[in-house]
Design goal:
By secondary structure, the chain is an alpha/beta fold. It has three domains: 172 residues, FAD/NAD(P)-binding domain; 126 residues, FAD/NAD(P)-binding domain (3-Layer(bba) Sandwich), CATH 3.50.50.60; 68 residues, FAD/NAD-linked reductase, C-terminal dimerisation domain (Enolase-like, domain 1, 2-Layer Sandwich), CATH 3.30.390.30. β18 and β19 form a beta hairpin. The chain contains ten helices and 27 strands.
Length: 402
């Protein structure tokens, strides 16, 4: 029986799974299939430090020698195009066929696009990969001008802050009535808005985007908020779509992501899925998370499942974002209906928001308050809930409660 483990993907989840399997002495069983021609690399810097410095290089998870030392077979620049579940084999774009005993899909996401906006266009960018970041960096560093950002999510706001530091004029159009409306509380959204405005970013909320005017292969202007806006350089930051096409074509159950159980198994017990492409049960609902923490932790659970050790994913999700001088750290998942309690920090730009459902602490959002974040994570992991009075009192050391 074939005991090969084929991993499809080149992001954080795939890299962490390779590390976990290599640590268990199973590297020689692993084939890593990557659409991109480079080794897995750190993606968070692509919207921040990588854009600002032409000399900054990719931060690889592991170099080629590490993969060779652990016997992992690499298939770079050769995307998986089909899965034959009955024969247990994966076909690559090159025509090579890889038999597997177990298959892991770590296919990630792709940038969401807008209907009516053709691609590619010379002055319109998305930001998901090294190639995207390299092209955008070249344009941001060669001159200054006006950057238009569609979408007030993490990627759009991080790039907006980076571009402002480089001297660009920046205008952000968000269709929702507030920034980060799906992932942050209204109180945190308001603070982020004030920070972006202080950086000099122009922000228009409730701005539905309409007609696009093209001039050859360039976007000349667009309608936003009922007005015409000329476009110099535009970033599409309107979210990401899970890469489920390969799984769907193979007959696996998919929704907003590839459906997995607590052991990261899909509807086919011989196929697992991990990372941004997965949808899993969390607090009685199906969720999909796009974070390094989720990718890394799911990979560790998948390694245990592959090795027959048994494991279940029980996450305490956490995220972070840097926007200029604002460092955001969040633990737990905020949702409507929670009661916020504000904990002051050392200065007006430093604070935390503790969100309660009854007496239970559900989520904590911290701005320039790393110690609050660190101990909030410990508290949520342990199921310990400070009272509202304790959370609101900066003199109450969270460390003493953990």
């Amino acid at each position: 029986m074939n005991d090969a483990i084929v991993i499809v993907g080149g992001g954080h989840a795939a890299a962490q799974l390779c590390s976990a399997l290599a640590e268990a002495g199973q590297g020689a069983r692993v084939h890593l299939v990557m659409e991109e021609g480079t080794l897995p690399y750190q993606r968070p810097p692509l919207s921040k430090s990588y854009l600002k410095d032409a000399a900054e290089t990719l931060q690889l998870h592991r170099d080629a020698q590490w993969f060779a030392t652990h016997g992992i077979t690499l298939h770079q620049g050769d995307a998986a195009v089909a899965i034959d579940r009955a024969a247990r084999q994966v076909t690559l774009a090159s025509g090579q066929v890889l038999p597997y005993g177990q298959l892991v899909l770590a296919t990630g996401t792709r940038a969401r696009t807008l209907p009516g906006l053709p691609a590619p266009l010379q002055n319109v960018w998305t930001l998901r990969s090294m190639a995207d970041a390299g092209g955008l960096r070249e344009r941001l560093l060669e001159r200054t001008g006006t950057l238009t950002v569609l979408g007030g999510g993490f990627i759009g706001l991080e790039v907006a802050a980076t571009a402002r530091k480089l001297g660009w004029e920046v205008q952000v159009f968000e269709a929702a009535p507030r920034l980060l409306s799906r992932s942050a509380s209204p109180e945190l959204s308001a603070a982020i808005l004030q920070h972006q405005l202080a950086l000099g970013t122009q922000v228009q909320l409730g701005a539905a985007v309409g007609q696009f005017e093209l001039d050859g292969e360039r976007l000349q202007a667009l309608q936003a908020g009922g007005e015409r806006h000329a476009v110099d350089l535009l970033l599409l930051g309107v979210g990401a779509v899970p890469e489920t096409a390969l799984a769907h074509a193979a007959g696996l159950e998919v929704g907003n992501g590839i459906l997995v159980d607590a052991g990261m198994k899909t509807s086919d017990p011989n196929i697992l899925a991990i990372g941004d492409c997965t949808a899993f049960e969390y607090e009685g609902r199906r969720v999909r998370l796009e974070s390094v923490q989720n990718a890394n932790d799911q990979a560790k659970v998948a390694a245990a499942t592959l090795l027959g050790q048994g494991a279940a994913y029980r996450p305490v999700p956490w995220f972070w974002s840097e926007q200029g001088g604002l460092r955001l750290q969040m633990v737990g998942l905020w949702r409507d209906g929670l009661e916020p309690v504000r904990r002051p920090g050392a200065n007006p730009a430093s604070f935390s928001l503790f969100h309660y459902d009854g007496d239970a602490l559900v989520a904590v959002e911290s701005a320039n308050a790393p110690m609050d974040h660190m101990f909030s994570r410990k508290l949520l992991e342990q199921g310990k809930y400070p009272t509202r009075a304790q959370a609101a009192d900066p003199a109450c050391a969270l460390k003493s409660l953990a």
